[in-house]
Amino acid sequence: MAPPHNEFDRLDADFVRVLEDVIETLMARNVIAITDLPENAQAKLFARKSFRERRHRHALNLFRESDFGDVI
Q: Domain of life here (predicted)?
């Protein structure tokens, strides 16, 4: 069984992702603007979003278009 602090680390990371999704949803619905947040929070959100996008770009994409047409 994993040590309790590892479980808390995983739960904290999952919760941070939930908070990011909530913030993104609020911005998409024009409830808040990114500029409503403190500069430090803005920088952290941009850094995490940028990291996720870079990571996603390098991930295996099984459904991208190819010269072979739709194979699924």
A: Bacteria
pLDDT in tens, 40-66: 999 999 999 888 888 877 766 666 666
69 burial (CB, 10 Å; 0-12 / 13-18 / 19+) is exposed
Residue 45 has a pLDDT of: 93
Q: What angle do CA 63, 66, 71 make, to 5 degrees?
A: 60
Where are the chain's structural domains? Answer: 21-56
